[in-house]
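**Backbone geometry record:**
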Amino acid sequence: MAEAALSGATHPILENDYASEWMGIEVLAVSDGHATIRMTLRQEMLNGFGMAHGGMIFAFADSAFALACNPVNPTPEEADSITVAAGVDINFLKPAYRGQVITAVANRRSSSGRSGLYDIQIFAADADTQHGAQPDSIPSSGNPGELIAEFRGRSRTIPKK
């Protein structure tokens, strides 16, 4: 990823992930079955009502899902496969607006064979409440903001092409 905004945490799938780069996603934490990311909502991410476009929130949550599904340090056996979405749903609970910082927290709920189940919570906070946060952490208050969406992903591991 050419100009990735990574805050100390890295993941091999980000190397050529130009969508996440364009969105300005920062990876705050990533481990087996977990990822926490954040980004600031920009004008070009808004819909005609002046709030975050649902597709932007979805794409943001999907990036967290992908990071949580795929190993950070793949074993030789894992290197020949990738884990992708088999299906997802999202529930939008509240709007988010330009300048707000959104944070996604992804966690594996279940894994069996080649299938997995993940929950991703998306939070929004005003940028000024983010002051005092370290670049590689959730805000110093420990609260990433108000819950704005819930994303549930079902994953499937498939061979790499």
Summary: Residues 54-69 form the longest helix (16 residues). The mean pLDDT is 88. The beta strands are 26-31, 34-40, 81-92, 101-112, 115-125, 146-159. The helical segments are 18-23, 54-69.
